[in-house]
Amino acid sequence: MTTAIAKAASGEEKQAALKKTAGRSKQSAGLATLLTATKTIELRLLSLDFESGDLLRTIALDTIQLPEAIHPLNSYASPTPVLDDSNIYCHFGENGTFCVDCKSGKVVWHRKLPVIHNVGAGGSPMLYDDKLVLIQDGVKRQFVTALDKRTGASLWETDRPAMVDPDADMHKAFSTAIAITDKLGRAQLICLGPQWIAAYQPDSGKEIWRCYHGRGYSQASRPLFADGVVYFSAAHSTLGMWAIRVDGSGDVSDTHVEWVIKKGTPIKPSPVLHDGLMFLIDDSGVATCIDVAAGAIVWAKRVGGDYSSSALLAGGHVYFSSHDGKVTVIKPNRAYRVVAKNQLDGRIMASPAAISDSLIMRTDKGLYRFRQQK
Known about the structure:
Blueprint: E1 2-8, H1 11-22, H2 28-31, E2 38-48, E3 55-65, E4 82-83, E5 87-91, E6 97-101, E7 107-111, E8 126-128, E9 131-137, E10 142-148, E11 154-159, E12 178-181, E13 187-192, E14 196-200, E15 207-212, E16 224-226, E17 229-233, E18 241-245, E19 250-251, E20 257-261, E21 272-274, E22 277-281, E23 286-291, E24 296-302, E25 312-314, E26 317-321, E27 326-330, E28 338-343, E29 353-355, E30 358-362, E31 367-371
Parallel strand pairs: 15-19
Antiparallel strand pairs: 1-2, 2-3, 4-5, 5-6, 6-7, 8-9, 9-10, 10-11, 12-13, 13-14, 14-15, 16-17, 17-18, 18-20, 21-22, 22-23, 23-24, 25-26, 26-27, 27-28, 29-30, 30-31
């Protein structure tokens, strides 16, 4: 897993960093008063023993001087690394993207791609064949790129659809690509972004289709796909869960939207799908179940708390993890039923992961592994 060790900035250094951020776009001048600035960050990759939790190795990746100020709900290591058989790929937004050999711990390659979010990075890399795919939706430029996972060389780079809203802060987003194959046999990389969601050919980056979802921006949740339909949250301004058929070409804004539900919309937490039902929790703690075939809400319940962590479907249960460390476990059914409520020490911002019969959870106090008793 990745981490970033920050060294506090002096008052003068903090003001300089915030002033720099405030000058990047109109809205950022007000946002700057909320941002967190630091003097340096040490980007690190940590290797732990899965059975014992012992720290095996700390790999120093880079030290960044006066990095971009970040939102208080963000960190300098928010993107999730991704693995293949031999390497791990770590992404820190404009602070760098690293390929590290899992056995030796050596950095195979390192790239810095220009992207300015004003509040820090959030979107994670994804692997498709020999490509590392990154969504780079910043306030100045928005594009999707594929790097050769072996060398880090750029294979293609495609600009996003033109932004309709002129405010630069409404041009940023933090989502992660998904790969699907439609009923026509077309491979697609579906990339949610500000104002638009679009699909691209994996080998060339050529756009397949696009759909305008309004003034939505800062999406951090990841789309879902099932039975020829992609589901996503439009997030800020527009709000709403959207369902779009993926068999179109060109601008499908007026032709392929199946439904829009403008309630219970998450900005950061990603939803899950199970047996035709979508389960999600919004940032303010309202859990919702949606029948995706009908485009109708089955139930909505206030769980309480604030949320950034994505829902997890594992072992026949759905897990919701709040900022204050409360984990609510429900059954993925048409009837809302809480199975358990647990309290962890610390703040939960990271999404949990299921590995075999174990549940991995990370707070600002520690890393936990839970295993089902037999």
